[in-house]
Each structure stands twice: as structure tokens, then as C-alpha cells.
Design a protein that fits this description.
Blueprint lengths: L1 E6 L9 E7 L7 H9 L3 H7 L10 E5 L3 H4 L11 E8 L6 H18 L3 E4 L11 H16 L24 E6 L5 H26 L7 H14 L3 E6 L1 H7 L2 H7 L7 E8 L8 E12 L8 H4 L7 H16 L4 E11 L10 E4 L5 E4 L6 H14 L5 E5 L4 H6 L4 E5 L2 H13 L4 E3 L4 H4 L9 E2 L7 H13 L4 E5 L5 E2 L9 E2 L4 H12 L1
Parallel strand pairs: 1-6, 2-4, 2-5, 5-6, 9-10, 9-13, 12-16, 13-17, 14-15
Antiparallel strand pairs: 3-4, 7-8, 8-10, 11-12, 14-17, 18-19
Helix pairs in contact: 4-5, 5-6, 6-11, 7-11, 9-12, 11-17, 12-16, 14-17
The chain binds ligand BES, manganese (II) ion and zinc ion.
The site of ligand BES has 15 residues, from loops.
């Protein structure tokens, strides 16, 4: 879709539809909504009086003017757009940037499904509630790109999103109308930023939504190469099994040994601050392209979403794509140790003892707790290669779904500043994060009778014992573990989240990097 920023009157735009808005409790619209109301014979005011438009959140009213040629001398005379869409914004004092994303996503989906090709819109929330127009426009474009996202490449007949229509409709252009000429530059900058953020999140969704027979470790490495090749300032290194053996990545190798697909170590470097090598952040994503559980086999239904077990890896690869576009003054490395977790004659056994790259021995009591094993070696590799801060992102535990539900990703950390920065970045991008404690009581659950540590801590504080395990390999390097098992995928369409992969936490990671570079 084409986004343009226009300065001037909304009513004057030559488009199929114009979008205005209304907070709840407003009975006489002003601003752009008032101007459109006046241009269409006070129809909006009449519908408010009739109780048909209330301004409540989620409400979308389509007023069909049918265009100038049709309306003749009637109430809509002289008004070119065939439709006026009034979007309810809810209560003004509760309205925030994520509401902007949501309104934008639901509105553009409706426009698309109506067959609208070109639309012009007000900037929802700009000014009214202390939201800067540039930030509001940014959130609108993020919401529009993510809300229109579809993964239909394997469908012979294309479908238009949330309805069952089999025709492939597309909204081709959205003009964002900023009334104040002086504000245009800020709005344009917001749109440019939004495209970098949302394209990255869409890339993460694509990587996750691909079926696991396509998105193998080899294919993921190829996709990473494509990302690195397309951007200035990114360099890529792909390492193989022999390299993992040389480095002593026994924990990662143990997970990979049951799979016929070659493992890949994917590393992308962005050098934004070459003169200060220490000014760096490592983004480390879990990259299990399919998690069958290994010999500790999952149930059939438990496997249905396990192509998404590389969502952490997808998010770090996608994030660095946007980071290269935005160009912050900080060094960033995206790292993903990719493999399948499969059963089979060569698979690791339950009760095997492996030696991780750090030298620590691990008793593998559940081959389905494979994420922490791969991350153990990933963190060791990062530290050996000079990481000064690390964020690992992983679909690590079903326990985090139990603990937090689907509204928040769970964070664990040894560093208050880093985790606070991550939580703030998540809030800024509408991807909520909640911190959970790393307490000593649950830490003891990882003690092994025969090795330094075991890879399962039992049922209590399930997500926490996983985090503790990874924490053993973070040592004293500032580190956050982000468990996205509950947030990486969704069943339902809701605002900017479309069914399938959500792209979480790609935009949060990009925001974190920008914030740390300040
Ligand atoms: N990839 C799964 C976690 C997961 C579960 C992600 C549901 C998304 C949705 C992970 O590898 C796993 O199997 N975890 C086990 C760990 C247990 C065996 C200690 C779990 O959470 O049950
Ligand atoms: Mn598993
Ligand atoms: Zn897993």
C-alpha cells in the first residue's frame, strides 16, 4: 500500500472514502470531523442525535454519499468521496497510541473489504489527548500495515481478510491529512519510521507463518542472508555443525542430533558505533524451526503451533533489518541458533548428560525443554564474542501462558535498567511485557543429582525455572530473558493482530535499540 502525507482539507481529497473520528460523549463534532459533517449536510450530527453513532471504541459507521455524480443537488452535493467512515475512539481520557493502531487496523480492513481503493484519513488522536501528530501518524501506519497483513501464499483462491469473500481486494492508497502545513515534516517522519517498524514485524510474521517443511534452519539462514544483503551496514555469518563442534556447543548439538536438517548458527552484525565496540546489544532468538518435543514427544495437538518455535529467532532477524534502516548509534548483533527438535534413532535420550560451551554439564531429563539448551550455548557464544548486554527472546514455556495469559510477554532479568528499558519499549509499541522474579527457591529446582544442572525444574514456577537455567549462562552480563510463548501467535483477529504469527516482539526490540542508542 501507498501512504502519502497531505496538507489541507480532508473534504477536498479526491478519493473513494474519507475517514473521520469521534470520541464517545461528543454530540457536535468539530475539527476535521465537523468539516466533513458540514460538507455532507450534517449527516454525522443527525446520526449522533438518532443514537446510531456514539463514538464508542470499535464502532465504525459507513455513510454512503455515493459520490458527486450520483448525489446531484442533494445533501451530498459537491462532495466527491463515495463514502465517509466515522470511527469511534472511545473515551478521550483513555485513548493511547495502541488505540490508534487498533482503530487504524480495523478501519483499513473495513475499507478493503468494501472494495475501496483509495482513502484519505484524519490522524486519529493527534493533539486532542496530548499525542504528537507524528507519533499518531506512525501508529496509524503501523496499524494499517499490520492490520492488512495476510499470509495466503498457499491458498489457491485469495481471500480478503476477516470475511469469507473469495475475491482479492486491496486498499491501494491511504492519504494521511495533516491540516497544519508546519506539521507535515513530523508526520512524514512518523510514516517513514512506521514503515520500517511494521515491515520488520511483517517479515517476522512471514518467517513464522511459513510451514516447518519450508522454514527449515537452512531456509531461515537464507532468509537472514537476504535481509543482510538488502541492507547497508549489515554483515552476516552462517556457521555449521562443524563450527558448533569446534566451539564445544554440546547443549545445542544434543538438541540438533535427532534431526536430518542441518543446523545453522545465524549471526547478523550491525555496526552503528564502530569506535565503541562495548556499546553493544546482542539480540538472541530461539530458533527451533519445529519442536516435536524430541523423544519426550509432544501430543499431536501440542505440536500444532510448534512451527512457531523459531519466533524469537525471526524477531531478532527482522528487528535488525529495521535497525539498519533507522541507523541508531549502537552496535547490535542478532544471533539465532537454528535447528529442529526431532525424535528418531539419532535423537538425544532422556537422562543424557551434555557439556555446554561454557563447560557446564547438563542432565537432559526432558528433551522437550530444548529451548534452554540451545540458548545456553547461544549466550555463551555471545559472551565469548564480547556481548555487553543481551536480550534473549524465546517461545520457551507453556508455563508463561499459565502465568500471564496472552496479554503480556514475560521478562526475567539480572539487570533492572535493561529490563526497565525493554518494558518501556514494549509499552511504546503496544506489546506489553510483565517482569517476573528470579527467586532462589525456584532456582534450586534445577539442581541435578549427577550433573551441574538439569534442564527441567518440575511444575512449580515452570517459566521461572526455564529462565533460571538460561540465567546460569548469562553470568554477570546484563541480560533479559523474554518468554513469548503466549504472545508470538494468536488464533483470532484483534486490532493489528491478525491470526497466526503476531510479529511480537520485533517492534519492541527495534524501539529498545533506538532508546539505548540515545
Ligand atoms: N516450545 C515449547 C514451549 C511452548 C509451548 C511454546 C506452547 C509455545 C506454546 C518448549 O520447548 C517446551 O516444550 N517447553 C516445555 C518445557 C518443559 C518440558 C520443561 C513446556 O513448557 O511444557
Ligand atoms: Mn520443547
Ligand atoms: Zn520449544
Amino acid at each position: 500500500m501507498q501512504f502519502t502525507v497531505v496538507s489541507g482539507e480532508l473534504a477536498a481529497q479526491d478519493v473513494d472514502a474519507v475517514v473521520v473520528n469521534l470520541f464517545s460523549g461528543v454530540d457536535k463534532p468539530d475539527g476535521a470531523t465537523g468539516a466533513i459533517d458540514a460538507a455532507i449536510g450534517n449527516t454525522i450530527t443527525a446520526l449522533i442525535e438518532a443514537g446510531e453513532i456514539t463514538g464508542r471504541s470499535g464502532e465504525l459507521t459507513v455513510i454512503h454519499t455515493l459520490g458527486e455524480a450520483y448525489s446531484g443537488n442533494g445533501a451530498y452535493s459537491g462532495f466527491a468521496p463515495k463514502r465517509v467512515v466515522v470511527a469511534g475512539l472511545g473515551k478521550a481520557d483513555k485513548f493511547d497510541l495502541d488505540d490508534v493502531r487498533t482503530v487504524s487496523a480495523t478501519t483499513v480492513r473495513r475499507l478493503r473489504n468494501l472494495g475501496v481503493k483509495s482513502a484519505a484519513t484524519v490522524i486519529h488522536g493527534a493533539g486532542a489527548v496530548g499525542i504528537e501528530p507524528g507519533d499518531a501518524a506512525e501508529a496509524m501506519v503501523e496499524g494499517a500495515i499490520l492490520g492488512l497483513y495476510k499470509f495466503d501464499k498457499y491458498k489457491s483462491k485469495k481471500q480478503s481478510g476477516d470475511d469469507d469473500a473469495e475475491d482479492d481486494k486491496t486498499l491501494e492508497s491511504l492519504a494521511i491529512v495533516e491540516p497544519d502545513t508546519a506539521g507535515v515534516a513530523d508526520v512524514e517522519a512518523g510514516v517513514t519510521r512506521a514503515i520500517a517498524f511494521a515491515d520488520a514485524a511483517a517479515l517476522a510474521r512471514d518467517l513464522v507463518n511459513e510451514p516447518p517443511n519450508v522454514m527449515t534452519p537452512t531456509k531461515l539462514a537464507e532468509e537472514a542472508e537476504r535481509v543482510a544483503g538488502a541492507a547497508d551496514g549489515l554483515s552476516i555469518t552462517i556457521l555449521e555443525r562443524a563450527d558448533a563442534e569446534k566451539m564445544g556447543m554440546g547443549a545445542f548439538l544434543g538438541v540438533a542430533q535427532g534431526s536430518r536438517e542441518p543446523l545453522k548458527i545465524i549471526r547478523i552484525d550491525y555496526g552503528g558505533d564502530a569506535r565503541h565496540a562495548d556499546n553493544n546489544l546482542w539480540l538472541i532468538g530461539k530458533g527451533i524451526t519445529f519442536d516435536s518435543g524430541g523423544l519426550s514427544l509432544k501430543t499431536s495437538s501440542g505440536m500444532e503451533t510448534m512451527k512457531s518455535d523459531m519466533a524469537g529467532g525471526a524477531s531478532v532477524i527482522a528487528a535488525i533489518q529495521a535497525i539498519a534502516v533507522i541507523g541508531p548509534k549502537i552496535n547490535v548483533t542478532a544471533l539465532c541458533l537454528a535447528t529442529e527438535n526431532m525424535p528418531g534413532g539419532g535423537a538425544q535420550r532422556v537422562s543424557d548428560v551434555v557439556t555446554a560451551m561454557s563447560g557446564m554439564t547438563i542432565e537432559v531429563l526432558n528433551t522437550d525443554a530444548e529451548g534452554r539448551l540451545t540458548l545456553a550455548d547461544a549466550l555463551a557464544y555471545a559472551r565469548e564474542n564480547g556481548a555487553s548486554r543481551m536480550v534473549d527472546v524465546a517461545t520457551l514455556t507453556g508455563g508463561i501462558v499459565t502465568a500471564l495469559g496472552r496479554g503480556n510477554s514475560g521478562a526475567f532479568s539480572n539487570d533492572d535498567d535493561l529490563v526497565d528499558a525493554l518494558i518501556a519499549a514494549g509499552a511504546r509499541r503496544g506489546e506489553p511485557i510483565w517482569r517476573l522474579p528470579l527467586d532462589d527457591v525456584s532456582k534450586r529446582q534445577n539442581r541435578s543429582k549427577i550433573a551441574d544442572i538439569k534442564n527441567t525444574g518440575g511444575r512449580p514456577a515452570h517459566a521461572t525455572t526455564g529462565a533460571h537455567f538460561i540465567g546460569e549462562f548469562a553470568g554477570d552480563t546484563p541480560w533479559v530473558h523474554l518468554d513469548i510463548a503466549a504472545t508470538a501467535m494468536t488464533d483470532s483477529l484483534s486490532g493489528w493482530r491478525t491470526p497466526g504469527a503476531t510479529g511480537v516482539p520485533t517492534r519492541t526490540l527495534i524501539q529498545l535499540v533506538i532508546d539505548l542508542a540515545k
